[in-house]
Design brief:
The chain is α+β, with helices and mostly antiparallel strands. The chain contains five helices and 15 strands. The chain has two domains: 157 residues, Nuclear Transport Factor 2, Chain: A; 143 residues, Galactose-binding domain-like (Jelly Rolls, Sandwich).
Length: 321
């Protein structure tokens, strides 16, 4: 332990700094209780919706304006300019209150008899208020196509276009969408965890291990600290353990069993070996006959490095939105 005045000053500053990251994150959580209400689906057309678009194809009559997306007429269309044949364009729907979407029905292309004269959406993303991005893919067909939506509380959903039909063309085309329809749940529903498969399966295990090792003060916790933060966090972790020894809780925490089965995860973004994951639910700290639930509602930023996944940042979900 430090003995000089300078060392004691450094110790106290570091103790206070790391208490916020380690101690507080273990023992105090902000848990967002999203009210579960009736699950009866209703159409969003009964609500006052607002639509905005990245751009539109200009005409003297305003034939291709944004409002055509929600006019309940599949023969009218919103059309982009010919810039990049519509790739990179977007349209956004704002709801009068926070909702949870059940699905989106989209009529891609010009459904009014000019289907082949306009580009159609091939792949895109639904971007929710909290920054979650759900990728989707459409077929190159006429008629409605239904995209099942993540159950994410949101005030707005933006459709961003990543690729189009026809895939290879020398023509300059405007992208067209004839109509959008949304089905929403009867109120705001809690977010639902995604299947823990593939990369999300790996990331979920990282987070489960992170909480287990952190709570039991196991040195294996440090394997998830990125190189640029390692020395600082290792020192802080030792300070934290010394604090627990002074308070008489170190042996209890070391011998506790951590049950993470009630944690759930959503992959919000994954690009260039960096993932953003929403972890929510709770885990249990079990010591003899005592069971203490620790609620969690956090957003992890996790990077893939040469020696494995590293936790670069943790934020409260409420502050990440």
């Amino acid at each position: 332990m430090p003995t000089s005045p300078e060392s004691n000053t450094r110790y106290k500053k570091t103790q206070a700094k790391h208490r916020a990251f380690l101690y507080t994150r273990i023992m105090k959580r902000i848990f967002i209780a999203l009210l579960l209400v009736a699950l009866t689906a209703t159409t969003a057309h009964t609500m006052e919706l607002k639509v905005s678009v990245s751009h539109f194809r200009p005409t003297l009559t305003g034939k291709y304006m944004a409002g055509n997306l929600l006019d309940n007429d599949t023969k009218t269309v919103w059309a982009s300019s010919e810039l990049n044949n519509g790739v990179g364009s977007w349209f956004s729907i704002t709801f009068p209150k926070v909702v949870a979407l059940k699905n989106m029905t989209i009529y891609s292309g010009h459904q009014g008899g000019e289907f082949d004269d306009f580009a159609r959406i091939h792949t895109g993303r639904l971007v929710f208020t909290d920054g979650s991005e759900q990728h989707f893919e459409l077929e190159d067909i006429t008629g409605p196509q239904v995209v099942e939506c993540w159950t994410v509380p949101t005030r707005e959903v933006t459709v961003e276009v990543d690729s189009i039909y026809p895939e290879n063309t020398d023509r300059h085309l405007s992208l067209a969408v004839s109509e959008l329809k949304f089905r929403i749940l009867g109120g705001v529903d809690a977010p639902k965890g995604m299947p823990e498969k593939g990369v999300l399966g790996e990331l979920a295990q990282v987070i489960r291990n992170f909480y287990t090792y952190q709570t039991t003060m196991d040195d294996d916790f440090l394997q998830y600290i990125p190189k640029e933060k390692f020395e600082e966090e290792r020192f802080g972790f030792e300070v934290f353990k010394q604090m627990q020894k002074q308070q008489g809780t170190f042996d209890i925490m070391r011998r506790s069993v951590i049950d993470t089965d009630a944690l759930h995860f959503r992959l919000m973004r994954f690009k260039d070996n960096e993932a953003v994951v929403h972890s929510f639910g709770h885990y249990l700290v079990i010591w003899k006959e005592h069971i203490t639930p620790i609620p969690d509602d956090s957003v992890f930023t996790i990077r893939k490095e040469k020696d494995g996944w590293k936790v670069a940042e943790i934020r409260d979900y409420a502050k990440a939105k």
